[in-house]
Each structure stands twice: as C-alpha cells, then as structure tokens.
Amino acid sequence: MKSRVFFTPIKDADDIEAVNAGLKTLLAKSGLPAVAEPGAKVVVKLHFGEDGTDAFVRPAHVRIVCDALAARGAFPFLSDANTLYRGKRLNCEDHLAVAMDHGFTREAVGVDVFIPDDTRDQNVVDVQIDRQFIKTASICRCYTDADAIMTVTHFKGHGLTGFGGSLKNLGMGCATRRGKLAQHCDVTPSFYEDKCIGCGECEKVCPVNAIHMEDDRSVLDRNKCIGCANCIAACPSGALMVDFKAGDDLQKKMVEYTYAVLKNKKGKAAYLNFALRINKECDCWRYGNQRIAPDVGLFASLDPVAIDKASLDLVNNACGKEIFKEFHPDQNPYLQIEYAEKIGLGTTDYELITV
C-alpha cells in the first residue's frame, strides 16, 4: 500500500510569508497535527544550526508548526540533542545559546526549547531493539517519553550518509553522545597524547574509571570504556576525539536508532521536510556550505521512509541528475531508505499529493 506524501512547491525560500502560507496549507491538508491529541506533550525535533551558519529551518516556519499543534490543545516544545563533534552545541548551555542566537526564542516560536543533558542518567533511556548492529540504543529520554513527535527537517546533503532527511534527524539527532559514538565508530574515542595538557577533566567525568592520570597525562583504558563520550565533551584541548567513519554500516546503525526512537510512537509521529536552501553538507557544517540545488518545496507525511524518498526524488528531478551522489560519490544515498523499509519503518512506494 502506498504511503501518502503531501507536497507544496516553493520557488523562493527567502519569501518567508509565501513559505508560511504554503506551510499552513500543507499542515491543514495533510492533517499532520492530528498525531497530537489534546493535552499531549509533543516534542518538535529539529536542528538549530551550528554557530556561524544559516543552514536551518527558520524560526518563523517553526512557529507555524507549533501553533498548529497548540491549536489542537497539545503542548509542543522544541528540542535537539547535544553533538559528538567539538562545536558550539557540545553542551547544553552553549547549545541553547546557539538556538537563541538563531532566533528560537519563546517570543519567536511560542514554545520552550529543551536541550537534554545526557550526562545525567535521568535524561537517558536504553531502548532494546535487537537489530543487526544495535541491540540496545541510547536515546535522550525526552524523545521517548513525549506523547508524540514531529520532525522538522532541513533536507540537505551529508558527507557520511549522502543526504540528511527525517530518518537522520531522528536516528542521529535523538541519540545521546554515547549513541552517536556507537553509530559513528567502534564505541571508544581516539586519544591523541600530543594534545593532552594534563588537566584531568576527562578523569573527573568518566563514570567507569576508564581514565587515570599518569605522568601528568591522561591514560585511557579501552577495555573499561563504555563509550559514553563524556570525556570528549570535557576535554578542552581536543585530545579525546572521534574518528568519524563513513560507510554502509553507519547508515544502517543510524536507521536502527530511528527504529528505537519510534518504537513506542506508532500513530504518534509525523514528518516535515523543508527542501529549501539545499546545501552540500549537514547543518553542522560552518565552512563554505554551498547550495547545490534550487528550492523545491515542503513535504509532509506520516511515513519517514516515504517522505525521504519523495524528497530525494524531487530534488534530483529539479537538478536533472543524482545531485547528492555527485557531491558525495562515496556514499549511496538510497541505502538508508532501503534499509529503513527493510526493517519496517515505512515504504518507498508513495503517492505524491500536491497541495
């Protein structure tokens, strides 16, 4: 059975009023806000953009989504999890500051922003899924505990996964740093001794005593390391880092994490893709993130596989070629979609409804 994907074409992302008008129509015609019942707590999952970039869905558009949910008597809030890489979104305080700087204030969006602190056990939940790569997924609790979830995704390219859509927004975006580390590499961080300044901050935050000081330098015991990534956040000199690895396994792990996030959200999850200002790299990328495609439009669906497939198809059609494959030739942009379909997250067979 085909999944319905609603689509509103947009030719100029800089026309905020036109985008908002199209978004209102899209939400009304698709019925996406109905995933939230009156009184429901709804997490609106998005990416606030890294410091120094404008590659994110505009707060004015997010306000429309939040207002539509609130009109049903629901209680939405915005959220994203902290990053694994060393940027301005590595900890809650700086991450929230970036969100505010980018305009995601309560005055602008009408709701609060919550950045979960995954160094606190009460903010983390282990979800058992027993898939091929991930047996137990480490997820920020606010995403699993919410009554419903709405993704607001900036559809763009990505150096490790080909493109980033709703599947990535959930799978990578809702994971704790421990979960992100499990997806990107073989759990343990890499230690660069020449960068260690002997401050001991990593030792203080390690919950399993896998780090100790020796001759004014940190020593990491990989056999004890559980991959929580607390040391990466604490290290001021970049001595503890992640060797990010691309490849098919990363995409499959990411999709399995999406499976974990959605495990208790049947009928309670909805997806919006903004195929506007389509960049070569992720919204985390701050350096020369070039536009690689024209503005295409807005997509809405109750199926995360179908919406990503439709978005990918229409962006490629607008470019007249496989644009993400051209810019990221080492990645198969269809792999995440095909694997998500295989494990039951949705279908690639969709009906496109233009509104």
Describe this structure in words.
The structure is a single chain. By secondary structure, this protein is of the alpha/beta class. β11 (211-214) and β12 form a beta hairpin. It has helices spanning 16-30, 59-70, 92-101, 106-109, 141-145, 166-171, 177-184, 201-205, 230-234, 248-261, 304-319, 323-327, 335-342; strands at 3-9, 41-45, 75-79, 113-114, 124-128, 136-140, 148-154, 156-158, 162-164, 190-191, 211-214, 217-220, 240-241, 269-275, 297-301, 350-354. The protein contains 13 helices and 16 strands. The strands form five sheets. It has an eight-stranded mixed sheet with strand order 4-3-2-7-14-15-1-16, sandwiched between helices. A two-stranded antiparallel sheet has the order 5-6. The model has no long low-confidence stretch (mean pLDDT 92). α1 (16-30) runs parallel beside α2, α7 packs antiparallel against α10 (248-261) and α11 packs antiparallel against α13. The protein has two domains: 3-178 and 247-354, Rossmann fold (3-Layer(aba) Sandwich), CATH 3.40.50.11440; 186-241, Alpha-Beta Plaits, CATH 3.30.70.20.
